[in-house]
User: What shape does this take?
Amino acid sequence: MEIVSETAKKRKMDYMEHALSLARLALGSSSPNPAVGAVIARDGVIIGQGYTQPPGSAHAEVVALRQAGHRAEGATMYVTLEPCCHFGRTPPCTQAIMKGCIAEVHIATLDPNPLVSGQGKAALDDAGIKTKLGEHEQEARELNEAYIKFITTGLPFVTVKFAMSLDGKIATGTGDSKWISGEESREYVHQLRGAVDAIMVGVNTVIADDPMLTVRWEGVERKGTGEEGGERKGKGGGGGERKQPIRVIVDSKARTPHTAQVFKQPGKIIVATTPAAPSVQTKKLKEAGAEVLELPPFSPDEGLVDLGELLAELGRRQITGVMVEGGGTLLGSFFEQGLVDKLIVFIAPVIIGGAEARLAVGGKGAERITDALRLSHVEVERFGDDVMICGYIGGRKDVHRNR
Assistant: This one.
């Protein structure tokens, strides 16, 4: 049975581009493994395709090989990340490719994992399988930017996201913020949440907004269907229910109300506190279902949670990507401590005004414009009447330094 549609056959198929669309379906369910897509083609027809299943299940290459069956012999595979060549929870994909008698493998980018890092490609070369490297490499690296940082530094990739008015406010002087951004922007935020392992907010955001901090999977799955990416309806790649990201609340003194909406939603909740948090409060949070994680303060004077230590602990738990959603105090600390990798801002065509209205980013701020943080690789997109600006901090987006 031919998998690709008649429409796709009439145009020149970019198989690696199609593999990338498959890989995107694995975001949010494959971590801490990378999100990978694989396509097997011969005579202009896709005979097998797949994407990374949840940890412990089949990798993209194996899913595609199973679908192709005996027709894989002599065919070409397009894969978005170098096939693994080591035994982990599953056998090496290089062995499966050799056993399937694939003749040629196109690889978008090498895997920076020290256990692979060029060795997978070398194994295929040594087996007489022709390899080609570099098709859509930048797109492949961006898709797995969280995995790349995590596997090379042990730290999660940090994306800061917020919505603000034209005059830079995230709430009125009374704290009202619903809704600054439009419905299309808010729907897209659910897609962003669905692609990360954890969502993080400060305690002031919980007190002011009482958010659920969940993914509305129904809308995400509806937008994730179609010819290019296959179809997911409320299920993960392995057939299980789509999971909710871990919710992390940064709360140095355990002021989070134990009756907050966040505790009524499915999924794991971590409240990061300091020794200054009253034990009676931390007990209530534990009873509400949270894990209370006590960390040292960043400085004795301010007494706020050491965010670097928090990220290190999340990394030890194999959390590869975190989206920080506010508020201004927390974002100010992240920027001042140099912990942000990527910034996504939704700007709504509204003026809030007022000296007491709340700013998106607090903290001390830059003394001179030359000291201000500037984004690189900036992209701009419209969502209804809103404008989204996305960019990277600290140089090239494909280079992550140890902190």
